[in-house]
Specification:
Protein name: NnrU domain-containing protein
Number of helices: 15
Distance between the termini: 60 Å
Number of domains: 2
Radius of gyration: 27 Å
Membrane topology: Multi-pass membrane protein
GO molecular function: 9,15,9'-tri-cis-zeta-carotene isomerase activity
Shape: globular
GO biological process, one term: carotene biosynthetic process
Strand order of the largest sheet: 1-7-3-4
Keywords: Membrane, Transmembrane, Transmembrane helix
Length: 373
């Protein structure tokens, strides 16, 4: 593939000077022994004419580099910092943040939580309890109700995600995000609250809570699972539609380990809680959630393929769904400073929030119990 990188170009309306500083072309090829051979050519000058009605574009005296790489197919799919087609994930620069945007975000968050409480959570005014009661009439089994709640949430969540392209064209990116969140959030809260309230109501299948090391293993697995959050989750201003929401093609950070980190994180969370609780309700919840995220693997790849085409195929070729698989088989080449892709503000926030959520478990359980869902 040949790519010409113009480090500096200027357009002048009336300029006819030739710069005679050399243009260096670097030609890379692999010989029969797969050794890299580099040939440097010097061109005395370079100029590009346009017709009289257009400006004359001259290459400046700075050096411009053209890279011609003749590589085999396997080598072309290898990743490096120089041939990424996707975006760098979890990037957060304080100097690029606008105070007004975060004030707007805080205001939106407050309004959303207030509406959610009044319209859904509060049993005296909201529809949450009526919804749970209606689903509970379908079956007396907590396992069945758990699965139905997950199925409803999954259908709405994945269904709206699948309609994103057409929906954004119809009503706009921000309006569609409000619709998506406004429908998905109450259903997600309902599913979580029902699980918390009925997690010990099923048939006990095993009991390992007294086994030494099980609590530490479950805690560590749960803690690590939150670092597999999908990178778009970090874009809080887009999540709240303060910034225009985008369907991103991420390629760095956690994406090097697995192309579907949210699925991997959900599997880890489910396994940790299922092993610890050890009953049929936990098994049912894990079955439903893992099934939903496995569908998301297919659906997510399909949507990214439609949006990004060949660029997604390149990313897909050098990443894997199974964690570390692409690294092990050589399709993913980690940069020497790969660890720096995790030393970023969002991951420090995730650490703090995850630890806070663990210590807040009693408060979450008490709040859920008061709803009587």
């Amino acid at each position: 593939m040949v790519s010409l990188v113009l480090l500096s170009s200027f357009t002048y309306p009336h300029l006819s000077t030739f710069y005679k500083s050399p243009l260096h072309l670097h030609h890379h090829r692999n010989d029969k022994n797969q050794n890299l051979v580099t040939t440097t050519l010097s061109v005395p000058y370079a100029s590009l004419y346009q017709n009289s009605s257009k400006s004359l574009l001259l290459l400046s005296h700075q050096r411009f580099v053209a890279h011609t790489s003749i590589q085999d197919t396997d080598t072309e799919t290898n990743d490096s910092s120089s041939n990424l087609v996707g975006e760098d994930s979890a990037v957060f620069h304080f100097e690029q943040q606008k105070l007004s945007s975060w004030i707007y975000f805080t205001a939106i968050l407050g309004v959303v939580l207030f509406i959610l409480d009044v319209a859904w959570i509060d049993n005296s005014t909201g529809f949450g309890k009526a919804f749970v009661d209606a689903v509970s009439r379908i079956s007396q089994s907590h396992e069945v109700v758990m699965l139905i709640l997950i199925l409803i949430f999954a259908g709405v969540h994945s269904g709206l995600a699948s309609l994103r392209d057409s929906g954004e064209k119809l009503i706009g990116e921000r309006a569609f995000r409000v619709l998506f969140a406004g429908v998905s959030l109450p259903l997600a809260v309902t599913t979580i609250v029902y699980f918390i309230n009925h997690r010990y109501d099923g048939i006990q299948l095993w009991q390992v809570q007294d086994v030494p090391g099980i609590h530490q293993l479950a805690w560590l697995s749960n803690f690590i699972s939150f670092f597999f959050l999908y990178p778009s989750t970090f874009n809080l201003l887009e999540v709240a539609a303060v910034d225009k929401p985008k369907l991103h093609l991420w390629e760095t950070g956690i994406m090097r380990i697995t192309r579907h980190p949210q699925m991997v994180g959900q599997v880890m969370w489910c396994l940790a809680h299922t092993v610890w609780i050890g009953n049929s309700v936990a098994v049912a919840a894990s079955f439903g959630l893992i099934g939903h995220h496995l569908f998301g693997v297919w659906n997510g790849d399909r949507r990214l393929g439609i949006r990004y085409g060949k660029d997604f195929e390149l990313v897909k070729g050098r990443t894997s769904v199974v964690p570390f698989a692409a690294i092990i088989d050589g399709r993913q080449k980690l940069p020497k400073d790969f660890y720096k892709e995790f030393i970023r503000v969002p991951y420090f926030i995730i650490t703090a929030v995850t630890l806070g959520a663990y210590f807040a478990h009693p408060l979450m359980q008490a709040a859920s119990f008061r709803l009587h869902w």
